[in-house]
């Protein structure tokens, strides 16, 4: 499990995290990443966590320093301003046990081939800017991804969720909770949640049938459509629909639809007071046992445990 791998960093004393700021100092992406980690460092003290910040130039020239986790961050608006020493920057990042990018940093790493074969939370607003070398990364529409030792986040407001998740995985909820309180964050979005404009940004003009099919799914959560019905309404054959989903989303339509409904259910469990039975019905599950089994298979805990976790927080 990716989280189990990342959690080994809790054994480091101190854990050294480096954030490379290749964008504006007050951007949403950068602020969302650095503020939670700095608050965690204050709570834990320098003997447990040390958060360094470097510019790209200073990072590549500081060859003697060792970090356990390195993240290259830049806002999407800086996508066209790739650092001049970028190749050296990528090699220095890869020297760390865990490393990755946030926002435009994800684009740059993908174009350098550093994310080949890796599940990558790609900022979909930058999809048109990516060159062909980035195609070997496995782009997902999720807010962030942790695939082995490589971490990616789409940036923007999701940077806060990403940073808080790192704190929780490495140091636990007893550290994450006070950071959330200091930052006035009620709920941390999970990495499986999707960027709101992801599909439209990537496929709106290139694959309108795929976008239409997903839109139909999103509009029919409580009373799910069959794959054949979706294909018919989108104006394609079932086989064509399955090919589109497999090629661009790495999933079958039925599986994608199920995960969409389960993610909605999880959101309702966290954000509303509807009963577990009501949530299941609202997301198209007529059987409580089917809802619980499918939920547990995707998230690793039952709907009841998810609700209890929210109440505990």
UniProtKB/TrEMBL annotation:
Gene3D superfamilies registered for this protein in UniProt: 3.40.50.880, Homeodomain-like (1.10.10.60)
SUPFAM superfamilies to which the protein is assigned, alphabetical: Class I glutamine amidotransferase-like, Homeodomain-like
PROSITE patterns: HTH_ARAC_FAMILY_1, HTH_ARAC_FAMILY_2
Segments forming domain HTH araC/xylS-type: 211-309
Single GO molecular function: DNA-binding transcription factor activity
Keyword Transcription regulation: yes
Transmembrane segments: none
Keyword entries, A-Z: DNA-binding, Transcription, Transcription regulation
Signal sequence region: none
Protein name: Helix-turn-helix domain-containing protein
């Amino acid at each position: 499990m990716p989280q189990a791998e990342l959690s080994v960093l809790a054994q480091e004393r101190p854990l050294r995290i480096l954030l490379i700021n290749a964008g504006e100092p007050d951007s949403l992406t950068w602020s969302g990443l650095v503020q939670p980690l700095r608050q965690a460092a204050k709570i834990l003290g320098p003997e447990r966590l040390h958060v360094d910040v470097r510019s790209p130039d200073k990072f590549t020239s500081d060859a003697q320093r060792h970090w356990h986790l390195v993240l290259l961050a830049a806002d999407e608006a800086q996508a066209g301003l790739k650092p001049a020493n970028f190749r050296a920057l990528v090699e220095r990042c890869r020297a760390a046990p865990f490393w990755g990018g946030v926002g435009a940093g994800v684009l740059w790493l993908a174009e350098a081939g550093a994310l080949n074969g890796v599940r990558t939370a790609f900022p979909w607003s930058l999809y048109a800017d990516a060159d062909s070398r980035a195609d070997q990364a496995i782009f997902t529409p999720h807010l962030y991804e942790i695939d082995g030792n490589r971490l990616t986040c789409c940036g923007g407001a999701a940077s806060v969720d990403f940073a808080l998740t790192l704190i929780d995985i490495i140091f636990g909820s007893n550290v994450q909770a006070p950071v959330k309180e200091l930052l006035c964050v009620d709920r941390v979005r999970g990495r499986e949640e999707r960027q709101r404009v992801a599909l439209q940004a990537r496929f709106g003009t290139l694959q309108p049938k795929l976008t239409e099919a997903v839109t139909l799914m999103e509009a029919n959560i409580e009373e799910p459509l069959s794959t054949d019905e979706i294909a018919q309404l989108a104006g394609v054959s079932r086989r064509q629909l399955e090919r589109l989903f497999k090629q661009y989303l790495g999933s079958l339509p039925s599986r994608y639809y199920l995960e969409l409904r389960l993610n909605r259910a999880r959101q309702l469990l966290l954000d509303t007071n509807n009963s577990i039975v009501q949530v299941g019905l609202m997301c198209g599950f007529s059987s409580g046992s089917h809802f619980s089994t499918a939920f547990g298979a995707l998230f690793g805990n039952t709907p009841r445990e998810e609700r209890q976790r929210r109440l505990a927080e």
